[in-house]
Amino acid sequence: MANEEIILEATGLTKEFKGFIAVKNVNLRVKRHTIHALIGPNGAGKTTCFNLLTHFLSPTAGQIHFKGRNITGSSPAAIARMGLARSFQISAVFPHLSVRENVRVALQRKLGISFQFWRSESVLGSLDARAMELVAAVGLAEFAEAQAVDLPYGRKRALEIATTLALEPEMMLLDEPMAGLGQEDIKRIAALIRTVSKDRTVLMVEHNMSVVADLSDTITVLARGEVLAEGPYATVSKHPAVVEAYVGTGHG
């Protein structure tokens, strides 16, 4: 496999908390322009692994490379500027701004003018057009002037994805995008993830196995902090150790 195909690579990733090893020697390679899912039973280390990749946590051992560059030890903000953006964290939504204004703030952040609220109306006006494009792209055009706080839960998720897209990331990390969503919203957000993945890479932690089966090109299964299996859903779902890990802990 040509190395330029790999956009994100973790080698020997380990995180220890006071004698408890949450992530142990994890190797992960994410190919460009794919949807890669990180799954596993509760307590498998998925969230810790995710936090390590975006440097919300620092690894005890191991290295992370993004686009061939060693990003181990970089700040989350620096990593976001390189094109690796994590939804639902970086994209903190302002509850009392409208949907359009929230996306515009994210666009301002991308331009480095987020706190210059005195900017001229012409500058902000030019960002409005792009903000509305992103709002429409995530299916929120009819909610553009609604306050974020008033949005239904599933629509808030779409707004979070829009504000992440405003950062124009090459790679998006989604932390349980389907958590707490009803069936209709799950379908809508799954379709949105498929759309946004067309010209970028997506890595997601997700519990909903039908979503994982439907969306993912590659799945990495973690159990007790270690990689148990990796591959397409058809292969991974039949892996005896994976079946045992899920059935054995009562998590389907």
Provide a descriptive summary of the structure in words.
The chain is an alpha/beta fold and 252 residues long. It has 2 domains: 1-90 and 170-252, 3-Layer(aba) Sandwich (Rossmann fold); 94-166, no CATH class. It is 37% helix and 25% strand. The chain is built from 9 helices and 10 strands. It has a 6-stranded mixed sheet, sandwiched between helices. A hairpin with a 2-residue loop joins strand 9 and strand 10 (226-231). The radius of gyration is 19 Å and the shape is globular. The protein starts with 5 loop residues before the first strand and ends with a helix. The model has no long low-confidence stretch (mean pLDDT 87).
Describe what is shown at a glance.
This protein has helices at 46-53, 76-82, 99-111, 121-137, 153-165, 183-196, 209-215, 233-236, 240-248, and strands at 6-17, 20-31, 35-39, 61-66, 69-70, 84-86, 171-175, 201-205, 218-223, 226-231.
